[in-house]
Amino acid sequence: MAVAKAINESLRRALESDPKVLIMGEDVGKLGGVFRVTDGLQKDFGEDRVVDTPLAESGIVGTAIGLALRGYRPVVEIQFDGFVFPAYDQIVTQLAKMHARSLGKVKMPVVLRIPYGGGIGAVEHHSESPEALFAHVAGLKVVSPSNAADAYWMMQQAIQSDDPVIYFEPKRRYWDKGEVDKDAIPGPLHTARVVREGTDLTLAAYGPMVKLCQEVADAAAEEGRSLEVVDLRSISPLDFDTVQASVEKTRRLVVVHEAPVFLGSGAEIAARITERCFYHLEAPVLRVGGYHAPYPPARLEEEYLPDLDRVLDAVDRSLAY
């Protein structure tokens, strides 16, 4: 099934299995969301379980916090990545802090679904990648699936978590299809996964860039180079052990994400892996990402986003050391 359908099926399963699960957001009910991810859920579960909210992100998240305090498990949709900032104060000063503020007595089982990233030709404020802003905040879990199976199971695990989870959905991958085993036993939510074995260099990515890295590995294989691809899956906490094991084997690392390179998630990965693998590395850790500039108009986004050539260039530079 497609990634969007996998999330829909996962939400449906959660609504069926737990009467305390609620879905809230702008246009999530009658419309089924602008990407139709929640299509049909309000029809089947009613307006009390799938709630169309006012256009007020701060109010939506504040309401979700109150519901969580009363024992509910709200799943909140922020319609687009760039719309999350009116709710940023609620998220970082309330949602993220409540567990610590109460000395562990209060749980915050809230999931914030945020479609993010570019590649769909959208207008301003519709193609941001703000994941590093949330990963920097203690008390928040930050994850991003790259395929349909992970989209399904990571949503299940996020809803079951007693801690707040920011669930970034790569909107350019909504229509990518893959196998989903609804009876599988999923691995831990915050564990990275090697999705392609290799020996010459490691590519680490999450969300929308995992597919690109696999395409880069295919292109490099035609030139006789063997690239390993690691799907990070979780941005906070981050599974450094899996990345370290890969780098100790390949001795080179390139980190790829859509977000700007400057102070992005790749910076933390580069620093940690340099500390952990200093005597294994044969080249500095390189990063490929967006530029330190506002996201451009749709006509220019292909120049802004990492592509096959930019990642291959980083691979060439790494292998040249």
TrEMBL record:
Keywords, A to Z? Answer: Oxidoreductase, Thiamine pyrophosphate
What are the Transketolase-like pyrimidine-binding domain coordinates in residue numbering?
A: 1-176
**Cofactor(s) needed by this chain:** thiamine diphosphate
**Signal peptide stretch:** none
Q: Which InterPro entries does the entry mention? A: THDP-binding, Transketo_C/PFOR_II, Transketolase-like_Pyr-bd, Transketolase_C
Checking SUPFAM superfamilies in the record gives:
Thiamin diphosphate-binding fold (THDP-binding), TK C-terminal domain-like
Top-level lineage group: Bacteria
Entries under Gene3D superfamilies matching the protein: 3.40.50.920, 3.40.50.970
Name of this protein = Alpha-ketoacid dehydrogenase subunit beta
Q: What is the scientific name of the source organism?
A: Streptomyces olivaceus
